Amino acid sequence: MFISAESLCKSYGSGDGKNDVLKNVDISLEKGHIGVILGPSGSGKSTLMNMIGGVDRVDSGSIIVDNDNVAGFDDDALTEYRRKNVGFIFQFYNLVPNLTVSENIEVCANISDSPLRLNEILSIVGLEDKKNRFPRELSGGEQQRVAVARAIVKNPKLLLCDEPTGALDFETSRDVLSLLQKINREFGTTILMITHNIAIGDMAHVVYKLRSGEITEVIRNDEIIPAERIEW
Ligand SMILES: Nc1ncnc2c1ncn2[C@@H]1O[C@H](COP(=O)(O)OP(=O)(O)OP(=O)(O)O)[C@@H](O)[C@H]1O
């Protein structure tokens, strides 16, 4: 198993204000698969993803990612793990406004031992002709493509996407989801994606339903739908 997380618990606050955000969550995902975490606002989706991505720490439980004992890492090892192995994509693209498309991508290539080539990435995300533009000169969908390029240029083993289409319209969302599916197929990148949108589950190998910090259902899809065919 590529991701194997067991009995994850995380609380914020203490005493009467204690908020149990993850309650004995188990989650596993095979290498090269797409997993989707579905759940209402506040159910703990981002918290779960942050634990797996080494952004935050669990109170208890184990997290193994590609044989790395992530939950046991000290701060330095956690930083190294994040930088080398994990690409992040968020709802809001978080691009550096005064850097061009190419420069936004190159900044992240520089932290990798085995980055992909800039031209290859620009071609995959379809932004070769816009590589010298600044983020403000791009549409939302194009900005998200830059964010995808930036996340994958370091050739991460794991791509974590937190509501990657949350700010996009239907057509543009489908384009970005297609791009993620293409990356999954071409590079074998394992992808874990958060969404509110149940339809997006159709393009995943596994869907985890999260409610109030607990996994209520795990659905394994035998048939993966191409993102271009998803409807909502
Ligand atoms: N750093 C923090 N300190 C205190 N509480 C937090 C912190 N991070 C998250 N929480 C709380 O944990 C709960 C789960 O938050 P989380 O962001 O994981 O939910 P989510 O399912 O991703 O929600 P959304 O879909 O709205 O992004 C919420 O009640 C939130 O207020």
TrEMBL record:
Q: Which InterPro entries match?
A: AAA+_ATPase (IPR003593), ABC_transporter-like_ATP-bd (IPR003439), ABC_transporter-like_CS (IPR017871), MacB-like_ATP-bd (IPR017911), P-loop_NTPase (IPR027417)
Supply the Pfam families for this chain: ABC_tran
Gene3D superfamilies recorded: P-loop containing nucleotide triphosphate hydrolases (3.40.50.300)
Q: Which GO terms describe its cellular component?
A: membrane protein complex
Keyword tags: ATP-binding, Nucleotide-binding, Transport
Q: Please give the name of this protein.
A: ABC transporter ATP-binding protein
Q: Where is the ABC transporter domain?
A: 3-232
Keyword Cytoplasm on this protein? Answer: no
Q: Which family does it belong to?
A: Belongs to the ABC transporter superfamily.
What PANTHER family does UniProt report for this protein, alphabetically?
ABC TRANSPORTER ATP-BINDING PROTEIN MG467-RELATED (PTHR42798:SF2), LIPOPROTEIN-RELEASING SYSTEM ATP-BINDING PROTEIN LOLD (PTHR42798)
| Species this protein is from | Sedimentibacter hydroxybenzoicus DSM 7310
Please give the PROSITE patterns that the UniProt record associates with this protein.
ABC_TRANSPORTER_1, ABC_TRANSPORTER_2
GO terms (molecular function) for this protein are: ATP binding; ATP hydrolysis activity; transmembrane transporter activity
